[in-house]
Design a protein that fits this description.
Blueprint (H helix, E strand, L loop, with lengths): L5 E4 L3 H12 L4 E4 L4 H9 L3 E2 L3 H6 L3 E4 L4 H8 L14 E4 L5 H13 L3 E4 L2 E2 L2 H5 L3 E5 L3 H14 E6 L5 H30 L3 H9 L6 H10 L10 H18 L6 H16 L7 H8 L3
């Protein structure tokens, strides 16, 4: 069976890894960068075609994938004379792999449907390294028939591919997922910072906490930096802070109250304002240490 042609917008850490994985699986790709030129050049060297704009990318593709940071950026790529929607036609499918506001996703879905195509949200769990291995967690949502049609492609990218329901459900779940993950990371970083302040060795803190019910993959990511000096989680403090902001926006839209998310968002936004925004999430430890007594 002929593989669908794929257009991919946004070759950051995660997007570039996904593109490389898709190319290794034999897909023909058209790509469009959001920020990083070197990753575009690497994809072209492996055989990808570079689009001049999002409209031409959509026209050349059966499936259009976006993996970019904010809802504002997604909307900018989707709309306008040179946007994705302008290049859509019947039978095409657009997939947003980023972490977007559910309300924005639902509105874009209506605009894509008006062009005869289908919009799916499919945010991701795990890391760029997982993407290279085809072992992402994919939290998909939207029209079931369209999702079933693209599932074989998603299964080349993901070890666990879920369909969660109506459009926007994936982004809702992703925000809950990232609230939990980033809160765990900040809590673990604070535990190490408090241990330093109290004179308790970091190795002791990890040995005790990891032997009990608090142990998690996120704890290990922070430990890898705090004890082993390896911050490579593949997710920046700036992006984490954005996601916590989106979680709080979702809660506000739902008329719901939050208790803990505000503290996590405050730590992440404070770290970004202090110059740590491009650092990986485990490095929030350095920000907390810097301010633990101020």
């Amino acid at each position: 069976m002929t593989k669908p042609k794929i257009g991919f917008i946004g070759l950051g850490l995660m997007g570039a890894a996904m593109v490389e994985r898709l190319q290794s699986c034999g897909y023909e790709l058209t790509v469009l960068g959001n920020k990083s030129r070197p990753r575009i050049d690497a994809a072209i060297a492996r055989g990808a075609t570079e689009a001049t704009d999002a409209k031409s990318l959509a026209e050349a593709s059966d499936i259009i994938m976006l993996c970019i940071t904010t809802s504002d950026q997604v909307e900018a790529r989707m709309r306008g004379e040179t946007g994705v929607i302008a290049g859509l036609s019947a039978g095409k499918t657009v997939i947003d792999f980023g972490t977007s506001l559910p309300a924005s996703t639902i509105v874009l879905g209506e605009e894509v449907a008006a062009a005869g195509a289908t919009y799916l949200d499919a945010p991701l769990g795990r890391t760029p390294a997982s993407a290279l291995e085809g072992k992402l967690n994919i939290m998909g949502a939207g029209d079931e028939t369209a999702f079933a049609a693209v599932r074989p492609v998603l299964e080349d990218l993901g070890e666990n591919v879920f369909h969660l329901g109506a459009l926007g459900s994936g982004h809702k779940m992703k925000l809950i997922n990232n609230y939990m993950g980033m809160t765990s990371a900040v809590a673990m970083a604070e535990a190490f910072a408090m241990a330093d302040t109290a004179g308790v060795p970091r190795e002791t803190v990890y040995a005790i906490l990891s032997s009990g019910p608090s142990h998690s993959m996120m704890m290990d990511f922070v430990k890898n930096y705090a004890i082993d000096g390896n911050p490579n989680m593949g997710f920046s403090i700036g992006n984490a802070g954005k996601d916590l902001g989106y979680y709080n926006t979702m809660a506000k839209d739902l008329g719901a109250r939050t208790w803990i998310a505000g503290a996590t968002a405050e730590a992440l936004s404070g770290a970004k304002e202090d110059g740590f925004g491009d650092n990986m999430v485990p490095e929030v430890l350095d920000y907390l240490l810097k301010h633990i007594k101020t």
